[in-house]
Design goal:
alpha+beta, Spore Coat Polysaccharide Biosynthesis Protein SpsA, Chain A, 2 domains, four-stranded mixed sheet, two-stranded parallel sheet, 12 strands, 39% helix, globular
């Protein structure tokens, strides 16, 4: 799926130029306003895209992903963001992992995002305890403790061995058709964020596993196609105005705080915590981000990422 990704999409699809007949490249563009449609048409003409879908509006990631899944027949699905880089060898490794483990519902490479990103976009579901161990630093101090494992895994401690996780980012993810047949497709409640976390929970509920392969690497230019900077916890920002946003129709939509608002909405809907637990979750999330924002602000005065962190810290109190 693309949106205003003219400067990225060619680098995303070129590594698959020598694909065999067992791999088809399908790209859906969600109403880009830059030169992305023209670039995509040229890539299709050059044989780098097998099926190009151009739509006039941007209904969000889940709607677009579900459309592509519906068009793919009985195929397995490899989701890949336009600002991600992967290889044919990586696809083969993901496929081999699924063949070796029949109960593997989702499998992803280890995705890294440059020197500034210290975490893997995978870990435990956003319940209160994993959120607390992550933002308090306990999960970093005791990385080998299963009890203290947090919302995210750390590259410095978990990048050398395969990991079974409770969620993984959809930026590069192999979805076997057997999983789709059993679990269904993405929820369309969220324009961006939380949709992959929610899907992962349904995979677990179906008795399947989710695995990150340490020996298979992908690069994700976090927030590379967004209009605002990414945050240091590897959570990018939204790119456009959603059609299915949670805010009431008479309120202005703030796309920069989707991450915080959608994650909290998902947490409440999925785990149905009591009022006191919800309050503790909000405090943990808000304080964790606020501290990170303050540290960034001191180190880099006027830093846009610090402002983004603080906006999300405050946003969970407005849901």
């Amino acid at each position: 799926m693309t949106y205003n990704s003219a400067h990225q999409i060619a680098d995303c699809v070129r590594p698959f130029a020598d694909r065999g007949p067992g791999i088809r490249i399908r790209v859906r563009d969600n109403g880009s306003t830059d030169s992305t449609p023209r670039v995509l048409k040229q890539l299709a003409a050059d044989g780098l895209i097998d099926e190009l879908i151009l739509v006039a509006e941007d209904p969000g990631f889940a709607v677009a992903a579900n459309d592509v899944i519906a068009r793919s027949g009985a195929d397995d699905i490899l989701l890949i963001n336009p600002d991600a880089r992967f290889t044919l060898e990586g696809i083969a490794a993901l496929r081999a992992a699924v063949e070796a483990e029949p109960d593997l519902g989702l499998v992803t490479p280890l995705v890294y995002g440059g020197d500034e990103i210290s975490v893997i976009s995978a870990g435990r579901q956003p319940r209160l305890w994993p959120l607390f161990t992550h933002y308090s630093g306990l999960s970093r101090l005791f990385p080998n403790s299963a009890m203290l494992r947090g919302r995210h895994l750390f590259l410095s401690h978990h990048a050398d061995t395969d990991q079974y996780v409770e969620w993984s980012s959809g930026c590069v993810m192999l979805m076997p058709r057997t999983t789709i047949d059993k679990v269904g497709v993405f929820t369309e409640r969220y324009f961006l964020y939380a949709d992959d976390t929610e899907y992962c929970q349904r995979v677990l509920d179906a008795g399947l596993k989710i695995k990150v392969l340490a020996g298979v690497r992908a690069f994700h230019e976090v927030g590379g196609s967004a209009q605002e900077p990414a945050v240091s916890d590897n959570e990018p920002v939204a790119e456009t105005t959603p059609a299915n946003e949670l805010a009431p129709a008479n309120e202005p939509i703030d796309i920069s705080t989707m991450w915080g608002r959608h994650l909290y909405d998902y947490y409440v809907r999925q785990f149905r915590p009591r009022a006191l637990t919800r309050l503790a979750w909000r405090i943990t999330f808000a304080v964790g981000l606020a501290v990170r924002a303050a540290v960034r602000g001191v180190r880099h005065p006027g830093d846009a990422k610090a402002r983004h962190l603080m906006k999300n810290a405050l946003a969970v109190w407005r849901v």
